[in-house]
């Protein structure tokens, strides 16, 4: 889908115009109404009298002359004071469905009239472009083209920005959307075609495309690194593990990097604690965090943001077999901390333990790990928030704000020291599950904290947002959760850096 930019004074050339109306607004006064045929405008006047209330989510078509594709769509937005960037994002996503279902090849949308409180037009343009592209995405790799035929060709974004400013915003959105959708492709690929080795190859491709460096540790090298935790999870599978290290060096030579750690379980069968039937569905997406950190790093590099980023992904399959770790086994992690494998299905935290320890050598300014870690986080939050854990209030707020702005909302959950006793082990330094029944997501976070040590660290349990919630207008499968958040975080840090530099110049 091509997005083109035109200025508010020009006449739209798309097949149909979007007339999006807040409560009380009159359709014939919409900025795009006067470009319609006189018949359509007359129709609009009578139409408004016929009971279109401009209510939220109301949709109708202006079909004139009848039998032809619609010349305009009427969309209700509800009360203007309730208009937010979240609602705007959903509106742009809905446009894709509307155009497809009505077989309209191109649409024109007037952006200045859709500006939420506190947002500027470049940000709205990015929001529009991003959400149009996210909604257009389908996972078509294994289908003939015919199954995906109905496509929207073009959306004309009408803006009051200068072409230079508008194009800069569009370019950023294009990169961000492309890598978010790349993340969805990697995550949606079934486990048979997305082994640890294949994930590492995908990382190589991403790195080469964007000028990042990449190093992949194989089993031998991981043994040399004494990554006993990752190796302990991997040993039940015939697929050998990989440890992926992708780096982008933006910013100054000696900048402390942002380190992103992603869970790369390419299939989570549960191990000897084999998952039940329903539990296995979707477990090829247990590398969502890994895919997200790789794609976010690639996007940050493609955007040439002035930050240094390191992405670390331990990639394994968690399988039951004669060579698998057994319940009760004790693993010696890279940090030297011993782990009792009380439950082989709590494998995510185990592999992340070694990755977090590995992160320490970079002396990072911030470490964020992303993992589809627990069903418990989904129970707590439903499917609309990522669970955020960090001991530091300021860091929590900073991440929350970045997530909200990026469209990857986060909700903080507690990880107070009182919970710590619940993951004590009788024979090892720590157990990989709690011995009390409740609070799996919190136990996961506290387990990770043991390995993060003094790092400035946050843990994101992205199990809740791995697949779309109802009404999000996203294709079945992976959402690419976390990619936009991490890009946003890198943007915020770049801006801070620029601010400091300017301060120094003065
Ligand atoms: N990958 C799963 C968590 C998960 C569940 C992700 C549903 C996405 C959707 C994880 O490895 C797991 O199995 N967690 C266990 C932990 C338990 C054994 C403490 C769980 O949540 O049941
Ligand atoms: Zn598991
Ligand atoms: Zn898992």
Write the topology of this structure.
Layout: E1 2-7, E2 16-22, H1 38-49, E3 59-62, E4 72-78, H2 85-101, E5 106-110, H3 121-136, E6 154-159, H4 163-188, H5 196-210, E7 213-217, H6 219-224, H7 228-234, E8 242-249, E9 258-262, E10 264-268, H8 277-280, H9 288-302, E11 308-318, E12 330-332, E13 338-340, H10 348-359, E14 366-371, H11 375-381, E15 386-389, H12 393-406, E16 410-412, E17 430-431, H13 440-452, E18 457-461, H14 483-505
Mind explaining what this structure looks like?
- The protein is of the alpha/beta class and 506 residues long.
- The protein is built from 14 helices and 18 strands.
- It has helices at 38-49, 85-101, 121-136, 163-188, 196-210, 219-224, 228-234, 277-280, 288-302, 348-359, 375-381, 393-406, 440-452, 483-505, and strands at 2-7, 16-22, 59-62, 72-78, 106-110, 154-159, 213-217, 242-249, 258-262, 264-268, 308-318, 330-332, 338-340, 366-371, 386-389, 410-412, 430-431, 457-461.
- Strands 7, 8, 9, 10, 11, 14, 15, 16 and 18 form a 9-stranded mixed β-sheet that branches. A 6-stranded mixed β-sheet has the order 1-6-5-2-4-3.
- Strand 12 and strand 13 (338-340) form a beta hairpin.
- Helix 2 crosses helix 3 (121-136).
- The longest helix has 26 residues, at 163-188.
- The chain starts with a strand and ends with a helix.
- The relative contact order is 0.11.
- The model has no long low-confidence stretch (mean pLDDT 95).
- It binds ligand BES and zinc ion (2 copies).
- The site of one zinc ion (ZN) has 5 residues, from loops.
